[in-house]
Amino acid sequence: MHRNWDFLRGKMEKERERLLELLRSKSFQRKKVVLASGKESDFYIDCREVTLNPEGIYLTGKVFFKILKSHTATIDAVGAVPVAAVPIAAAISVISYIEGSPIPAFVIRKEPKAHGTGKWIEGAANLKKGAVVAIVEDVITTGGSVLKAIKTAENEGLKVDCVIAIVDREEGGREGIVSAGYNLITLYTRKDFM
Questions:
Q1: Residue 149: its H or E element
Q2: Does residue 188 sit in helix, strand or coil?
Q3: Mind listing the pLDDT tens digit for each residue in 102-118?
Q4: d(CA 147, CA 173)
Q5: How do residues 103-160 score in pLDDT, each as one tens digit?
Q6: CATH code for position 174
Q7: Structural domain of residue 33, as residue ranges?
């Protein structure tokens, strides 16, 4: 699924536009960087500058929640790819509670906890077996982190329905996620920043 914003008309479209303003002013930088994928880039989008901002995380949670509520499948929970997506999943969960339609959040660890129970999923006590989940991420580049998180979630008995991200850098991640059989919904693409 690519961007179809018919369901965001009115106030939600204004919130989406305001979120983009914040991302452009606080998160977007023109500079040489090495990304988590190991690729070099001449720009960087650090969504944490917005998702750790009170207005930014509120808007992110609100828009993501609206997307989930308009989605064809009922989503039982939202899982975060650590670390940048953790505030996103938490915001969705808080907004969902306020809106009277609670959706629990969980965090998918990059490796099992080294002590205690050795678990892969934080927040698992709030999930039912076979729960239908959405995976949230801040920025999609190659999709490697998301695909690893999906595999972990499915190995833990969850059914991943879709991935929702703030930005698609348009560097192959969409193709990798979609070819693996998952829908990818993004709020923005690199074109929104260039």
A1: helix 144-155
A2: strand
A3: 999 999 998 877 777 77
A4: 9
A5: 999 999 988 777 777 789 999 999 998 999 999 999 999 999 999 999 999 999 999 9
A6: 3.40.50.2020
A7: 6-192
What's the half-sphere exposure (Cβ side, CA atoms, 13 Å) at 20?
16
> HEC states along the chain?
CCCCCHHHCCHHHHHHHHHHHHHHHHHEECCCEECCCCCEECCEECCHHHHCCHHHHHHHHHHHHHHHHHCCCCCCEEEECCCCCHHHHHHHHHHHHHCCCCCCEEEECCCCCCCCCCCCEECHHHCCCCCEEEEEEEEECCCHHHHHHHHHHHHCCCEEEEEEEEEECCCCHHHHHHHCCCEEEEEEEHHHCC
Q: Count the domains in the chain.
A: 1
Taking Cα atoms as reference points, which of 160, 184, 164 lies closest to residue 172? 184
What pTM did the predictor assign?
0.90
The verdict on residue 51 lying in a domain is yes
Q: What does the DSSP 8-state code read for residue 22?
A: H
In a domain, 1, yes or no: no
Q: What single-letter DSSP state applies at residue 104?
A: -
User: Measured between alpha carbons, how far is 37 from 14 in angstroms, rounded to an integer?
Assistant: 33
Phi, psi of 90 (to 5 degrees): -65, -40
Backbone dihedral angles phi then psi of residue 167, each to the nearest 5 degrees:
-130, 135
